[in-house]
Specification:
Blueprint lengths: L1 H15 L5 H12 L6 H11 L5 H13 L4 E4 L6 E4 L5 E6 L5 E4 L3 H7 L10 E6 L6
Parallel strand pairs: 3-5
Antiparallel strand pairs: 1-2, 3-4
Amino acid sequence: MITNKKNDLQACLNKNGGRLTRQKLIILDFLQKNHNHPTAEVIYRTVRKKLPNISLGTIYRNLNYLAENDFLIELKSKYDNKTHFDINNQDHLHFICLNCGIIYDIKRFEKILQGKFKNLGKINRIECSLYGICKQCR
């Protein structure tokens, strides 16, 4: 739901002296509706339909800002060597198919991983990608 993200983003922007632009809102709205881990280029092609004058550079700047402030996750894929973006900023794993490149979220592994590695210290964030062949490609 964009309302919570919008309120959180507004608070973060106010704290950092930034502003809530239409570009940020449209990018967040697109990601809220598309959980398929798109690249900046895919986001650009779609957002451009609403904002024809937006540049790819503006998309990247806004995505970088949103990622740096934990509104989304940057996911580097070894399938296509591109950065994909995930609006789900809660700890979770990803499965990436080496044949078709589809990315699936894997949830509910956080507690297992934190239990296994608690002797290392306090875990603040988990980022992990599993690579293999998905059911459809197998």
